[in-house]
Amino acid sequence: MDAEHILLIEDDQFKQEPIEAAIRKQHPLATLHVARSVQQAVKLLRARFYVFVVLDIALPSHESRAGGAQPISQPSGGIEILLELSYDMREDSVIIVTQYPEIEYNGKFHALPRARQALMAAIDVKIIDVIQFSAQDNTWRRKFGEALACER
Question: What is the reported pTM?
Answer without folding.
Answer: 0.90
